[in-house]
Design goal:
Helices cover 44% and strands 12% of the residues. The chain has helices at residues 2-20, 25-32, 46-55, 77-82, 143-154, 169-178, 192-196, 199-212, 240-257, 274-287, 307-314, 321-331, 355-377, 399-415, 434-441, 475-491, 497-515, 521-540, 550-560, 571-578; strands at residues 98-100, 119-121, 132-134, 140-142, 220-226, 232-237, 292-297, 335-337, 340-342, 383-388, 391-396, 426-429, 449-451, 454-460, 467-473. Strand 14 and strand 15 (467-473) form a beta hairpin. Helix 6 packs across helix 9. The protein starts with a helix and ends with a helix.
Length: 581
Protein backbone atom coordinates (compact mmCIF):
# COMPACT_ATOMS: atom_id res chain seq x y z
CA UNK A 1 0.00 0.00 0.00
CA UNK A 2 2.80 2.40 0.91
CA UNK A 3 4.62 1.57 -2.34
CA UNK A 4 1.44 2.37 -4.33
CA UNK A 5 0.99 5.66 -2.48
CA UNK A 6 4.62 6.59 -3.12
CA UNK A 7 4.23 5.77 -6.80
CA UNK A 8 1.06 7.91 -6.97
CA UNK A 9 2.78 10.85 -5.29
CA UNK A 10 5.71 10.55 -7.70
CA UNK A 11 3.29 10.60 -10.64
CA UNK A 12 1.54 13.67 -9.25
CA UNK A 13 4.85 15.49 -8.88
CA UNK A 14 5.71 14.68 -12.49
CA UNK A 15 2.33 16.03 -13.59
CA UNK A 16 2.84 19.28 -11.67
CA UNK A 17 6.32 19.75 -13.12
CA UNK A 18 5.07 19.13 -16.64
CA UNK A 19 2.07 21.47 -16.14
CA UNK A 20 4.29 24.33 -14.96
CA UNK A 21 6.70 23.89 -17.90
CA UNK A 22 5.55 25.06 -21.33
CA UNK A 23 6.22 22.40 -23.98
CA UNK A 24 8.63 23.11 -26.78
CA UNK A 25 7.77 22.96 -30.44
CA UNK A 26 9.94 19.84 -30.77
CA UNK A 27 7.89 18.04 -28.12
CA UNK A 28 4.66 19.03 -29.73
CA UNK A 29 5.70 17.84 -33.14
CA UNK A 30 7.53 14.71 -31.91
CA UNK A 31 5.03 13.22 -29.48
CA UNK A 32 1.63 14.44 -30.54
CA UNK A 33 2.11 14.32 -34.31
CA UNK A 34 4.52 11.56 -35.17
CA UNK A 35 3.94 11.85 -38.88
CA UNK A 36 4.81 14.66 -41.26
CA UNK A 37 1.85 16.81 -40.24
CA UNK A 38 2.49 20.51 -40.16
CA UNK A 39 2.24 22.07 -36.71
CA UNK A 40 1.41 25.75 -36.52
CA UNK A 41 2.89 27.63 -33.61
CA UNK A 42 0.37 29.79 -31.79
CA UNK A 43 1.40 32.96 -30.03
CA UNK A 44 1.13 32.90 -26.27
CA UNK A 45 -1.03 35.28 -24.30
CA UNK A 46 -4.53 35.79 -23.01
CA UNK A 47 -5.95 36.65 -26.42
CA UNK A 48 -5.05 33.21 -27.78
CA UNK A 49 -6.42 31.55 -24.67
CA UNK A 50 -9.78 33.34 -25.02
CA UNK A 51 -10.08 32.56 -28.72
CA UNK A 52 -9.35 28.93 -28.01
CA UNK A 53 -12.06 28.68 -25.39
CA UNK A 54 -14.59 30.41 -27.63
CA UNK A 55 -13.68 28.57 -30.82
CA UNK A 56 -13.70 24.98 -29.57
CA UNK A 57 -15.25 23.33 -26.55
CA UNK A 58 -13.31 20.08 -26.49
CA UNK A 59 -13.52 19.29 -22.79
CA UNK A 60 -16.56 18.63 -20.66
CA UNK A 61 -17.00 20.32 -17.31
CA UNK A 62 -14.39 22.70 -15.97
CA UNK A 63 -11.32 20.66 -16.91
CA UNK A 64 -7.93 22.20 -17.40
CA UNK A 65 -5.89 21.66 -20.56
CA UNK A 66 -4.13 18.32 -19.98
CA UNK A 67 -0.37 18.41 -19.53
CA UNK A 68 1.97 17.52 -22.32
CA UNK A 69 3.03 13.90 -21.97
CA UNK A 70 6.64 13.58 -20.99
CA UNK A 71 7.13 9.85 -20.82
CA UNK A 72 5.45 6.48 -20.73
CA UNK A 73 4.21 6.89 -17.19
CA UNK A 74 0.69 7.65 -15.97
CA UNK A 75 0.37 10.67 -18.23
CA UNK A 76 2.28 9.31 -21.20
CA UNK A 77 0.93 7.15 -24.01
CA UNK A 78 -2.63 6.93 -22.65
CA UNK A 79 -3.03 10.70 -22.93
CA UNK A 80 -1.23 10.60 -26.26
CA UNK A 81 -3.97 8.44 -27.70
CA UNK A 82 -6.89 10.50 -26.43
CA UNK A 83 -5.62 14.10 -26.36
CA UNK A 84 -3.99 14.61 -29.74
CA UNK A 85 -5.61 18.01 -30.26
CA UNK A 86 -5.65 19.29 -26.70
CA UNK A 87 -1.98 18.83 -26.00
CA UNK A 88 -0.99 20.82 -29.06
CA UNK A 89 -2.22 24.01 -27.37
CA UNK A 90 -1.13 23.12 -23.84
CA UNK A 91 1.36 25.95 -23.67
CA UNK A 92 -1.28 28.62 -23.24
CA UNK A 93 -1.38 31.23 -20.56
CA UNK A 94 -3.20 30.16 -17.42
CA UNK A 95 -5.90 32.35 -15.97
CA UNK A 96 -6.50 33.27 -12.37
CA UNK A 97 -8.49 31.44 -9.72
CA UNK A 98 -8.66 27.65 -9.60
CA UNK A 99 -12.04 25.94 -9.29
CA UNK A 100 -12.18 22.22 -8.47
CA UNK A 101 -14.84 20.36 -10.41
CA UNK A 102 -14.43 16.73 -9.26
CA UNK A 103 -15.06 15.44 -5.78
CA UNK A 104 -12.17 13.80 -3.94
CA UNK A 105 -12.34 10.08 -3.25
CA UNK A 106 -10.80 10.37 0.17
CA UNK A 107 -11.39 14.04 0.83
CA UNK A 108 -12.48 13.56 4.42
CA UNK A 109 -9.64 11.29 5.60
CA UNK A 110 -6.15 12.07 6.74
CA UNK A 111 -4.60 9.54 4.37
CA UNK A 112 -3.00 10.62 1.09
CA UNK A 113 -5.43 11.26 -1.69
CA UNK A 114 -6.19 8.32 -3.91
CA UNK A 115 -6.93 10.57 -6.91
CA UNK A 116 -5.84 14.07 -7.87
CA UNK A 117 -8.43 16.76 -8.38
CA UNK A 118 -8.60 18.20 -11.86
CA UNK A 119 -8.77 21.95 -11.77
CA UNK A 120 -9.42 24.75 -14.22
CA UNK A 121 -8.73 28.44 -13.93
CA UNK A 122 -11.57 30.70 -15.00
CA UNK A 123 -11.23 32.36 -18.38
CA UNK A 124 -10.09 35.95 -18.15
CA UNK A 125 -12.42 37.54 -20.68
CA UNK A 126 -15.63 35.60 -19.98
CA UNK A 127 -17.02 36.09 -16.51
CA UNK A 128 -19.58 33.64 -15.24
CA UNK A 129 -23.09 34.56 -16.37
CA UNK A 130 -25.34 33.06 -13.74
CA UNK A 131 -27.99 35.75 -13.67
CA UNK A 132 -28.29 36.91 -17.27
CA UNK A 133 -28.87 35.18 -20.59
CA UNK A 134 -28.60 36.58 -24.07
CA UNK A 135 -31.47 36.38 -26.50
CA UNK A 136 -31.26 36.65 -30.28
CA UNK A 137 -32.09 40.35 -30.03
CA UNK A 138 -29.00 40.84 -27.82
CA UNK A 139 -31.13 41.96 -24.87
CA UNK A 140 -30.13 40.58 -21.50
CA UNK A 141 -32.83 38.49 -19.79
CA UNK A 142 -32.22 37.46 -16.19
CA UNK A 143 -32.88 33.92 -15.06
CA UNK A 144 -35.26 35.29 -12.45
CA UNK A 145 -37.47 36.86 -15.14
CA UNK A 146 -37.44 33.61 -17.07
CA UNK A 147 -38.69 31.82 -13.97
CA UNK A 148 -41.39 34.47 -13.56
CA UNK A 149 -42.50 33.86 -17.14
CA UNK A 150 -42.53 30.12 -16.60
CA UNK A 151 -44.67 30.53 -13.47
CA UNK A 152 -47.10 32.79 -15.36
CA UNK A 153 -47.34 30.23 -18.16
CA UNK A 154 -47.85 27.33 -15.79
CA UNK A 155 -50.55 28.92 -13.62
CA UNK A 156 -52.88 31.44 -15.28
CA UNK A 157 -54.35 32.37 -11.91
CA UNK A 158 -51.08 32.90 -10.06
CA UNK A 159 -50.63 36.28 -8.37
CA UNK A 160 -47.12 37.65 -8.02
CA UNK A 161 -46.28 39.17 -4.66
CA UNK A 162 -42.58 40.04 -5.02
CA UNK A 163 -41.40 41.56 -8.31
CA UNK A 164 -39.55 44.77 -7.55
CA UNK A 165 -36.27 42.98 -6.83
CA UNK A 166 -36.14 42.14 -10.54
CA UNK A 167 -35.69 45.87 -11.23
CA UNK A 168 -31.93 45.66 -10.88
CA UNK A 169 -29.20 48.14 -11.69
CA UNK A 170 -28.41 46.22 -14.88
CA UNK A 171 -32.05 46.37 -15.97
CA UNK A 172 -32.13 50.13 -15.35
CA UNK A 173 -28.99 50.49 -17.46
CA UNK A 174 -30.53 48.45 -20.29
CA UNK A 175 -33.70 50.55 -20.05
CA UNK A 176 -31.68 53.75 -20.33
CA UNK A 177 -29.88 52.46 -23.42
CA UNK A 178 -33.21 51.45 -24.99
CA UNK A 179 -34.57 55.00 -24.88
CA UNK A 180 -34.35 57.31 -27.87
CA UNK A 181 -31.26 59.48 -27.78
CA UNK A 182 -32.86 62.55 -29.35
CA UNK A 183 -36.24 62.38 -27.59
CA UNK A 184 -37.71 65.59 -26.22
CA UNK A 185 -37.05 66.19 -22.50
CA UNK A 186 -39.74 66.24 -19.84
CA UNK A 187 -40.54 68.89 -17.27
CA UNK A 188 -37.07 68.59 -15.71
CA UNK A 189 -35.34 69.44 -19.00
CA UNK A 190 -32.88 66.53 -18.66
CA UNK A 191 -31.89 65.02 -22.00
CA UNK A 192 -30.44 61.58 -22.72
CA UNK A 193 -26.98 62.99 -23.45
CA UNK A 194 -26.93 65.04 -20.26
CA UNK A 195 -27.93 62.07 -18.12
CA UNK A 196 -25.29 59.90 -19.79
CA UNK A 197 -22.48 62.18 -18.60
CA UNK A 198 -22.78 60.81 -15.04
CA UNK A 199 -24.70 57.64 -15.78
CA UNK A 200 -23.49 55.10 -13.23
CA UNK A 201 -23.75 57.42 -10.24
CA UNK A 202 -27.24 58.58 -11.19
CA UNK A 203 -28.47 55.06 -11.93
CA UNK A 204 -27.26 53.85 -8.52
CA UNK A 205 -29.06 56.74 -6.86
CA UNK A 206 -32.23 56.03 -8.87
CA UNK A 207 -32.05 52.32 -8.05
CA UNK A 208 -31.67 53.13 -4.36
CA UNK A 209 -34.62 55.56 -4.37
CA UNK A 210 -36.87 53.07 -6.16
CA UNK A 211 -36.18 50.30 -3.66
CA UNK A 212 -36.36 52.59 -0.60
CA UNK A 213 -39.69 54.03 -1.70
CA UNK A 214 -38.22 57.52 -2.06
CA UNK A 215 -38.78 57.69 -5.83
CA UNK A 216 -41.27 60.39 -6.87
CA UNK A 217 -42.90 60.50 -10.31
CA UNK A 218 -42.85 63.86 -12.05
CA UNK A 219 -45.77 65.25 -14.07
CA UNK A 220 -45.79 64.77 -17.83
CA UNK A 221 -45.15 67.72 -20.08
CA UNK A 222 -48.16 68.32 -22.33
CA UNK A 223 -47.56 68.82 -26.02
CA UNK A 224 -49.66 68.42 -29.16
CA UNK A 225 -49.01 66.87 -32.54
CA UNK A 226 -51.22 67.24 -35.64
CA UNK A 227 -53.45 64.37 -36.70
CA UNK A 228 -54.29 63.32 -40.25
CA UNK A 229 -57.81 64.79 -39.93
CA UNK A 230 -56.44 68.21 -38.94
CA UNK A 231 -57.08 67.87 -35.20
CA UNK A 232 -54.47 67.91 -32.43
CA UNK A 233 -53.42 64.80 -30.56
CA UNK A 234 -52.31 65.45 -26.93
CA UNK A 235 -49.11 63.77 -25.82
CA UNK A 236 -47.54 63.50 -22.37
CA UNK A 237 -43.73 63.55 -22.33
CA UNK A 238 -42.40 61.99 -19.13
CA UNK A 239 -39.17 62.93 -17.40
CA UNK A 240 -36.11 60.86 -18.26
CA UNK A 241 -35.88 59.06 -14.92
CA UNK A 242 -39.59 58.23 -15.14
CA UNK A 243 -38.98 56.74 -18.58
CA UNK A 244 -36.14 54.58 -17.24
CA UNK A 245 -38.15 53.19 -14.33
CA UNK A 246 -41.26 52.71 -16.48
CA UNK A 247 -39.28 50.81 -19.10
CA UNK A 248 -37.75 48.57 -16.44
CA UNK A 249 -41.09 47.83 -14.78
CA UNK A 250 -42.72 47.21 -18.17
CA UNK A 251 -39.94 44.72 -18.97
CA UNK A 252 -40.74 42.79 -15.79
CA UNK A 253 -44.51 42.89 -16.30
CA UNK A 254 -44.25 41.87 -19.95
CA UNK A 255 -42.91 38.47 -18.87
CA UNK A 256 -46.23 37.90 -17.09
CA UNK A 257 -48.75 39.48 -19.42
CA UNK A 258 -47.25 38.05 -22.60
CA UNK A 259 -48.46 34.70 -21.32
CA UNK A 260 -51.97 36.12 -20.78
CA UNK A 261 -52.60 38.24 -23.87
CA UNK A 262 -54.59 36.55 -26.61
CA UNK A 263 -53.36 35.87 -30.11
CA UNK A 264 -55.48 38.48 -31.89
CA UNK A 265 -53.91 41.32 -29.87
CA UNK A 266 -51.01 42.86 -31.83
CA UNK A 267 -50.50 46.39 -30.56
CA UNK A 268 -47.32 47.35 -28.69
CA UNK A 269 -46.20 43.79 -27.97
CA UNK A 270 -42.67 42.40 -28.27
CA UNK A 271 -42.11 40.60 -31.55
CA UNK A 272 -45.34 41.88 -33.12
CA UNK A 273 -46.00 44.85 -35.36
CA UNK A 274 -48.61 46.34 -37.65
CA UNK A 275 -47.96 44.06 -40.60
CA UNK A 276 -48.61 40.98 -38.48
CA UNK A 277 -52.05 42.39 -37.71
CA UNK A 278 -52.63 43.25 -41.38
CA UNK A 279 -51.61 39.74 -42.43
CA UNK A 280 -53.95 38.15 -39.87
CA UNK A 281 -56.86 40.26 -41.10
CA UNK A 282 -56.18 39.43 -44.75
CA UNK A 283 -55.89 35.70 -44.09
CA UNK A 284 -58.98 35.68 -41.86
CA UNK A 285 -61.22 37.30 -44.45
CA UNK A 286 -59.83 35.14 -47.26
CA UNK A 287 -59.93 31.77 -45.47
CA UNK A 288 -62.95 32.10 -43.19
CA UNK A 289 -66.63 32.65 -43.98
CA UNK A 290 -66.66 36.41 -43.54
CA UNK A 291 -69.48 38.44 -45.13
CA UNK A 292 -69.70 41.44 -42.77
CA UNK A 293 -66.91 43.54 -41.29
CA UNK A 294 -67.15 45.72 -38.19
CA UNK A 295 -64.51 48.45 -38.21
CA UNK A 296 -64.50 50.03 -34.73
CA UNK A 297 -62.45 52.61 -32.86
CA UNK A 298 -62.64 53.75 -29.24
CA UNK A 299 -63.11 57.49 -28.84
CA UNK A 300 -60.33 59.13 -26.82
CA UNK A 301 -59.23 55.82 -25.36
CA UNK A 302 -56.02 56.93 -23.60
CA UNK A 303 -57.78 59.98 -22.14
CA UNK A 304 -60.77 58.08 -20.71
CA UNK A 305 -59.17 55.06 -18.97
CA UNK A 306 -60.60 54.76 -15.46
CA UNK A 307 -57.84 54.60 -12.84
CA UNK A 308 -59.76 52.44 -10.39
CA UNK A 309 -60.60 49.84 -13.01
CA UNK A 310 -57.01 49.98 -14.22
CA UNK A 311 -55.62 49.09 -10.79
CA UNK A 312 -58.24 46.37 -10.30
CA UNK A 313 -57.25 44.75 -13.58
CA UNK A 314 -53.56 44.88 -12.69
CA UNK A 315 -54.28 43.31 -9.28
CA UNK A 316 -55.62 40.21 -10.99
CA UNK A 317 -51.99 39.23 -11.52
CA UNK A 318 -49.81 41.69 -9.59
CA UNK A 319 -50.18 42.06 -5.82
CA UNK A 320 -46.71 43.38 -5.06
CA UNK A 321 -47.56 46.61 -3.17
CA UNK A 322 -44.39 48.32 -4.37
CA UNK A 323 -45.20 47.74 -8.05
CA UNK A 324 -48.78 48.86 -7.50
CA UNK A 325 -47.54 51.98 -5.72
CA UNK A 326 -45.33 52.85 -8.70
CA UNK A 327 -48.23 52.44 -11.14
CA UNK A 328 -50.45 54.56 -8.92
CA UNK A 329 -47.78 57.28 -8.82
CA UNK A 330 -47.58 57.39 -12.62
CA UNK A 331 -51.36 57.56 -12.96
CA UNK A 332 -51.67 60.39 -10.41
CA UNK A 333 -48.57 62.37 -11.45
CA UNK A 334 -50.62 64.89 -13.41
CA UNK A 335 -49.82 67.01 -16.46
CA UNK A 336 -47.82 70.22 -16.75
CA UNK A 337 -48.93 72.57 -19.54
CA UNK A 338 -47.50 76.09 -19.90
CA UNK A 339 -46.07 75.87 -16.40
CA UNK A 340 -49.38 74.94 -14.76
CA UNK A 341 -49.92 71.56 -13.11
CA UNK A 342 -53.22 69.78 -13.68
CA UNK A 343 -54.40 66.76 -11.74
CA UNK A 344 -55.41 63.69 -13.76
CA UNK A 345 -58.33 61.66 -12.46
CA UNK A 346 -58.86 59.61 -15.62
CA UNK A 347 -56.68 58.62 -18.54
CA UNK A 348 -53.00 57.80 -18.93
CA UNK A 349 -50.43 59.95 -20.79
CA UNK A 350 -50.29 58.96 -24.43
CA UNK A 351 -46.56 58.91 -25.03
CA UNK A 352 -45.36 57.52 -21.69
CA UNK A 353 -43.29 54.32 -21.80
CA UNK A 354 -45.64 52.39 -19.52
CA UNK A 355 -48.84 53.53 -21.29
CA UNK A 356 -48.93 50.89 -24.09
CA UNK A 357 -48.65 48.03 -21.61
CA UNK A 358 -51.32 49.48 -19.31
CA UNK A 359 -53.60 50.06 -22.31
CA UNK A 360 -53.20 46.44 -23.40
CA UNK A 361 -53.95 45.23 -19.88
CA UNK A 362 -57.08 47.38 -19.73
CA UNK A 363 -58.40 46.18 -23.10
CA UNK A 364 -57.42 42.59 -22.32
CA UNK A 365 -60.00 42.47 -19.55
CA UNK A 366 -62.55 44.85 -21.08
CA UNK A 367 -62.51 43.60 -24.68
CA UNK A 368 -60.33 40.57 -25.46
CA UNK A 369 -61.58 38.08 -22.86
CA UNK A 370 -65.17 39.19 -23.38
CA UNK A 371 -64.98 38.83 -27.19
CA UNK A 372 -63.34 35.44 -26.92
CA UNK A 373 -66.13 34.25 -24.62
CA UNK A 374 -68.89 35.85 -26.72
CA UNK A 375 -67.93 34.19 -29.98
CA UNK A 376 -67.77 30.76 -28.31
CA UNK A 377 -71.03 31.13 -26.40
CA UNK A 378 -73.36 33.29 -28.50
CA UNK A 379 -72.10 33.37 -32.10
CA UNK A 380 -73.90 31.21 -34.65
CA UNK A 381 -71.28 31.56 -37.40
CA UNK A 382 -67.60 32.29 -37.92
CA UNK A 383 -66.06 35.36 -36.26
CA UNK A 384 -62.54 36.74 -36.69
CA UNK A 385 -60.96 39.40 -34.47
CA UNK A 386 -57.85 41.55 -34.99
CA UNK A 387 -56.99 44.28 -32.49
CA UNK A 388 -54.14 46.77 -32.59
CA UNK A 389 -54.25 49.01 -29.49
CA UNK A 390 -57.66 50.74 -29.50
CA UNK A 391 -58.34 50.05 -33.19
CA UNK A 392 -59.94 46.69 -33.98
CA UNK A 393 -61.70 44.92 -36.85
CA UNK A 394 -64.11 41.98 -36.60
CA UNK A 395 -65.45 39.77 -39.35
CA UNK A 396 -68.85 38.01 -39.13
CA UNK A 397 -70.50 35.34 -41.18
CA UNK A 398 -74.06 36.42 -40.34
CA UNK A 399 -75.50 39.89 -40.15
CA UNK A 400 -77.59 39.13 -37.05
CA UNK A 401 -74.46 38.17 -35.13
CA UNK A 402 -72.81 41.43 -36.13
CA UNK A 403 -75.76 43.57 -35.05
CA UNK A 404 -76.15 41.82 -31.73
CA UNK A 405 -72.44 42.01 -31.02
CA UNK A 406 -72.29 45.74 -31.81
CA UNK A 407 -75.17 46.51 -29.46
CA UNK A 408 -73.67 44.52 -26.61
CA UNK A 409 -70.23 45.98 -27.29
CA UNK A 410 -71.54 49.51 -26.73
CA UNK A 411 -72.98 48.43 -23.39
CA UNK A 412 -69.74 46.71 -22.44
CA UNK A 413 -67.65 49.77 -23.21
CA UNK A 414 -70.00 52.07 -21.27
CA UNK A 415 -69.65 49.92 -18.15
CA UNK A 416 -65.92 50.72 -18.05
CA UNK A 417 -66.02 54.39 -19.00
CA UNK A 418 -65.33 53.93 -22.72
CA UNK A 419 -67.33 54.69 -25.87
CA UNK A 420 -67.07 53.79 -29.54
CA UNK A 421 -66.27 56.58 -31.98
CA UNK A 422 -69.50 57.30 -33.91
CA UNK A 423 -67.74 58.31 -37.14
CA UNK A 424 -65.06 55.59 -37.16
CA UNK A 425 -67.29 52.65 -36.22
CA UNK A 426 -69.06 51.07 -39.20
CA UNK A 427 -70.67 47.74 -40.08
CA UNK A 428 -70.26 47.09 -43.82
CA UNK A 429 -70.85 44.25 -46.21
CA UNK A 430 -67.45 42.88 -47.15
CA UNK A 431 -66.00 39.60 -48.29
CA UNK A 432 -66.04 37.02 -51.04
CA UNK A 433 -69.73 37.46 -51.98
CA UNK A 434 -70.10 41.16 -51.17
CA UNK A 435 -69.81 42.31 -54.79
CA UNK A 436 -72.41 39.87 -56.15
CA UNK A 437 -74.83 40.46 -53.27
CA UNK A 438 -74.67 44.25 -53.60
CA UNK A 439 -75.05 43.97 -57.36
CA UNK A 440 -78.28 42.03 -56.87
CA UNK A 441 -79.48 44.64 -54.39
CA UNK A 442 -78.55 47.47 -56.74
CA UNK A 443 -76.16 49.09 -54.26
CA UNK A 444 -73.02 49.30 -56.40
CA UNK A 445 -69.52 48.28 -55.37
CA UNK A 446 -68.73 46.99 -51.87
CA UNK A 447 -67.70 49.56 -49.29
CA UNK A 448 -64.14 49.88 -48.07
CA UNK A 449 -62.62 50.31 -44.62
CA UNK A 450 -59.34 51.66 -43.28
CA UNK A 451 -57.05 49.84 -40.89
CA UNK A 452 -53.48 50.72 -39.86
CA UNK A 453 -52.90 53.17 -42.70
CA UNK A 454 -54.30 51.01 -45.54
CA UNK A 455 -57.62 51.08 -47.34
CA UNK A 456 -59.00 47.55 -47.78
CA UNK A 457 -61.27 46.85 -50.73
CA UNK A 458 -62.76 43.81 -52.45
CA UNK A 459 -61.22 42.95 -55.82
CA UNK A 460 -60.46 40.12 -58.24
CA UNK A 461 -57.23 38.68 -59.61
CA UNK A 462 -56.41 39.56 -63.21
CA UNK A 463 -56.02 36.07 -64.60
CA UNK A 464 -58.30 33.74 -62.64
CA UNK A 465 -60.86 36.38 -61.56
CA UNK A 466 -60.82 34.98 -58.03
CA UNK A 467 -61.68 37.06 -55.00
CA UNK A 468 -58.84 38.91 -53.31
CA UNK A 469 -58.34 41.87 -51.00
CA UNK A 470 -56.37 44.86 -52.21
CA UNK A 471 -54.65 47.22 -49.78
CA UNK A 472 -53.88 50.78 -50.83
CA UNK A 473 -52.23 53.53 -48.87
CA UNK A 474 -54.89 55.76 -47.37
CA UNK A 475 -55.24 58.94 -49.42
CA UNK A 476 -55.52 61.04 -46.28
CA UNK A 477 -52.25 59.63 -44.92
CA UNK A 478 -50.44 60.17 -48.20
CA UNK A 479 -51.55 63.80 -48.42
CA UNK A 480 -50.50 64.45 -44.83
CA UNK A 481 -47.06 62.90 -45.45
CA UNK A 482 -46.49 64.94 -48.61
CA UNK A 483 -47.56 68.09 -46.78
CA UNK A 484 -45.04 67.47 -44.01
CA UNK A 485 -42.28 66.78 -46.55
CA UNK A 486 -43.11 70.00 -48.42
CA UNK A 487 -42.75 72.00 -45.20
CA UNK A 488 -39.38 70.39 -44.51
CA UNK A 489 -38.15 71.05 -48.06
CA UNK A 490 -39.01 74.72 -47.70
CA UNK A 491 -36.73 74.91 -44.67
CA UNK A 492 -34.02 72.99 -46.56
CA UNK A 493 -34.39 75.01 -49.76
CA UNK A 494 -30.91 76.54 -49.64
CA UNK A 495 -29.10 73.46 -48.32
CA UNK A 496 -26.66 71.63 -50.65
CA UNK A 497 -28.46 69.44 -53.15
CA UNK A 498 -26.52 66.35 -52.17
CA UNK A 499 -27.46 66.72 -48.52
CA UNK A 500 -31.14 67.21 -49.35
CA UNK A 501 -31.06 64.26 -51.76
CA UNK A 502 -29.69 61.96 -49.04
CA UNK A 503 -32.42 63.08 -46.66
CA UNK A 504 -35.18 62.54 -49.24
CA UNK A 505 -33.80 59.11 -50.12
CA UNK A 506 -33.95 58.08 -46.46
CA UNK A 507 -37.53 59.37 -46.23
CA UNK A 508 -38.51 57.35 -49.28
CA UNK A 509 -36.88 54.18 -48.00
CA UNK A 510 -38.69 54.53 -44.70
CA UNK A 511 -41.97 55.07 -46.53
CA UNK A 512 -41.39 51.98 -48.66
CA UNK A 513 -40.54 49.88 -45.61
CA UNK A 514 -44.10 50.22 -44.35
CA UNK A 515 -46.27 50.77 -47.44
CA UNK A 516 -44.57 48.53 -50.03
CA UNK A 517 -47.08 45.66 -49.78
CA UNK A 518 -48.28 43.57 -52.74
CA UNK A 519 -50.92 45.40 -54.75
CA UNK A 520 -49.86 48.87 -53.61
CA UNK A 521 -47.28 49.59 -56.33
CA UNK A 522 -49.49 52.18 -58.03
CA UNK A 523 -49.75 54.30 -54.88
CA UNK A 524 -46.03 53.98 -54.24
CA UNK A 525 -45.18 55.21 -57.72
CA UNK A 526 -47.66 58.08 -57.34
CA UNK A 527 -45.97 59.08 -54.08
CA UNK A 528 -42.53 58.90 -55.73
CA UNK A 529 -43.59 61.12 -58.63
CA UNK A 530 -45.36 63.66 -56.42
CA UNK A 531 -42.31 63.88 -54.19
CA UNK A 532 -40.09 64.69 -57.17
CA UNK A 533 -42.54 67.40 -58.28
CA UNK A 534 -42.57 68.97 -54.82
CA UNK A 535 -38.78 69.02 -54.70
CA UNK A 536 -38.61 70.52 -58.19
CA UNK A 537 -40.99 73.34 -57.31
CA UNK A 538 -39.10 74.05 -54.11
CA UNK A 539 -35.78 74.31 -55.92
CA UNK A 540 -37.31 76.46 -58.65
CA UNK A 541 -37.92 79.20 -56.09
CA UNK A 542 -34.37 79.39 -54.82
CA UNK A 543 -33.64 82.20 -57.26
CA UNK A 544 -35.75 84.71 -59.19
CA UNK A 545 -33.26 84.96 -62.06
CA UNK A 546 -32.49 81.40 -63.14
CA UNK A 547 -35.25 78.86 -63.52
CA UNK A 548 -34.57 75.15 -63.06
CA UNK A 549 -35.58 73.06 -66.08
CA UNK A 550 -37.28 69.70 -65.63
CA UNK A 551 -35.20 68.24 -68.48
CA UNK A 552 -32.11 68.71 -66.33
CA UNK A 553 -33.67 67.93 -62.97
CA UNK A 554 -35.70 64.82 -63.87
CA UNK A 555 -32.78 62.45 -64.68
CA UNK A 556 -30.91 63.60 -61.56
CA UNK A 557 -33.95 63.04 -59.36
CA UNK A 558 -34.41 59.55 -60.82
CA UNK A 559 -30.79 58.82 -59.98
CA UNK A 560 -30.92 60.21 -56.43
CA UNK A 561 -34.33 59.02 -55.26
CA UNK A 562 -34.87 55.23 -55.11
CA UNK A 563 -37.77 54.04 -57.28
CA UNK A 564 -40.59 52.08 -55.62
CA UNK A 565 -40.56 48.32 -55.35
CA UNK A 566 -42.53 45.78 -53.34
CA UNK A 567 -40.69 44.77 -50.16
CA UNK A 568 -43.25 42.73 -48.24
CA UNK A 569 -44.32 39.16 -49.09
CA UNK A 570 -47.90 38.16 -49.65
CA UNK A 571 -49.87 38.13 -46.37
CA UNK A 572 -50.64 34.41 -46.39
CA UNK A 573 -46.99 33.54 -46.99
CA UNK A 574 -45.73 35.45 -43.96
CA UNK A 575 -48.70 34.50 -41.77
CA UNK A 576 -48.36 30.76 -42.31
CA UNK A 577 -44.59 30.97 -41.95
CA UNK A 578 -45.15 32.33 -38.44
CA UNK A 579 -48.26 30.24 -37.69
CA UNK A 580 -47.95 26.94 -39.57
CA UNK A 581 -51.13 25.04 -40.22
Amino acid sequence: MKRRQKKTQTGLLNCENQLSRAPTLLELSGRQHRGKRHVREFPSGSARSENLSMRRNLWSGNQEVPPTPGGDGPTGRADEATNRDTAMHAGGKSDNRVVPTKRLNNGGSSEPLAEAVEERRLTEGNAQQTTTLRTQSRIGVSLGLLRVREAARRDKCARFTNLLHHVTLDLLRQSFCALKREAAPGVDGVTWRKYEANLELQLRDLHDRVHRGAYRAQPSRRTYIPKADGKQRPLGIAALEDKIVQHAVATVLNHIYEEDFLGFSYGFRPGRHQHHALDALWVGVMDRKVRWVLDADIRGFFDTIDHEWMLKFVEHRIVDPRILRLIRKWLKAGVSEDGRWTETTVGIPQGAVISPLLANVYLHYVFDLWVNLWRRKYATGDIIVVRYADDFVLGFQYHKDAERFLAELRERMANFGLALHPDKTRLIQFGRFAASNRRQQGKGKPETFNFLGFTHLCSETRRTKEFTILRYTMSKRMKATLKAIRASLVRRRHDPLGQTALWLASVLRGYYQYHAVPGNYGRLRMFWQLLKRIWFRTLSRRSQRARLQWEHFGPLADQWLPPPRILHPYPNVRFYAIHPK
